[in-house]
Amino acid sequence: MVxxxxxxxxxxxxxxxxxxxxxxxxxxxxxxxxxxxxxAKERLDNKRAIAKTLGLWAPYLSEKEGGIGLSMIEFxxxxxxxxxxxxxxxxxxxxxxxxxxxxxxxQSASNDLKAQYLKPLMNGxxxxxxxxxxxxxxxxxxxxxGTTAVLEGDEYVINGHKWFTSSADGAAFAIVxxxxxxxxxxxxxxxMIVVPTDTPGFEVVRNISVMGDVGGGYISHSEINYVNxxxxxxxLIGEEGSGFMLAQQRLGPGRIHHCMRWIGICERAFDMMxxxxxxxxxxxxxxxxxxxxxxxxxxxxxxEINAARFMVLHAADKMDKEGSKAARMEISTIKFxxxxxxxxxxxxxxxxxxxxxxxxxxxxxxxxxxxxxxRIYDGPDEVHKASLAKSILRQYGL
Length: 398
Ligand SMILES: Cc1cc2nc3c(=O)[nH]c(=O)nc-3n(C[C@H](O)[C@H](O)[C@H](O)COP(=O)(O)OP(=O)(O)OC[C@H]3O[C@@H](n4cnc5c(N)ncnc54)[C@H](O)[C@@H]3O)c2cc1C
What we know:
Helix content is 50%, strand content 15%. It is an alpha+beta fold and 398 residues long. The mean pLDDT is 96. The structure holds flavin-adenine dinucleotide.
């Protein structure tokens, strides 16, 4: 917790979340991420029940909705703490992609959709997924898209091919991005539609193997065919043609959430690196940490993580005060900066652990495998850098 940004609410909550992670989550996390998902889910459901009893549930939701009503800057610091475990966010129902879908539906879904899908999602009774990217089109510019939703009577008929729909395995519904208005201007062609995963024609092709790991359940990414999927027209979120606008709304807070979580991973990997450096003996009482190269990595990592944290909290503060649109440049900046700090710190920590670092006996290999995507999803580095530079250069008249 950063003293400068520590509100009274945070001062009370932070130690409770820390104690919960230490007692309930850290001792079992390694088994959970390497075991079958259904087993992990059962054990995590028990932990979720404990979190609810302790009053830690979904801290970003308002108190009226069963949460704690944290601001973005408060949630940022809790999210960092949760990020120190790969299942921390899940334990408190703050995990992507559900948190993004919750925020999106909260702002833009009809009351019926809220009652049917959002409420059980907020309560942790079901999971969801977000289905936008397609293998045949560049996901970094999703204006081009093959999936269509054609209105027939009072139903949309959806056809398309998606992939990297994270956590689709076991999800109750997908929010699908599909072209509804092909003749509209390019940013007004697509819409977001809720598709229950038991709809005939919702066909999971496979869970995609990522660096040798197919995963399962919540920890997976699916390829999906939508084949004449019929859903009620009332499953539309917001207005027809508002898909891109809603995607932007969803991605703003989503990017901050990821950055906060990554700093938590960095802190854990850093802690592991320091413990290893302080204890691994090379020869005659000389420890790894006596080597200057290792000392450099420790110092560089410390400086980079501190910088990343302040940048993220600054972006969160701007978002709290001025909204997501005003914080666009800050969000682009942290998205690529923090993702690269994460890569560096994880890589150094693995290197300091030697062969142990690439085994599945520590969490480092899990994170290395699963977080390489950080530089790609929610906008690849290059797109954020280009967007930031354009905004800066605009101030110079270019
Ligand atoms: C772990 C993970 C989880 C994901 N989860 C989801 C999900 O739940 N739902 C979903 O819909 N999608 C998801 N995605 C997909 C993700 O959004 C896309 O991978 C991303 O938008 C990039 O699209 P692409 O893979 O088609 O790459 P492309 O668009 O083909 O880009 C390939 C590369 O080209 C470069 N590039 C692209 N544009 C530019 C540019 N303007 N200037 C310079 N270089 C450029 C970048 O290096 C980029 O990595 C996930 C991806 C990953 C890796």
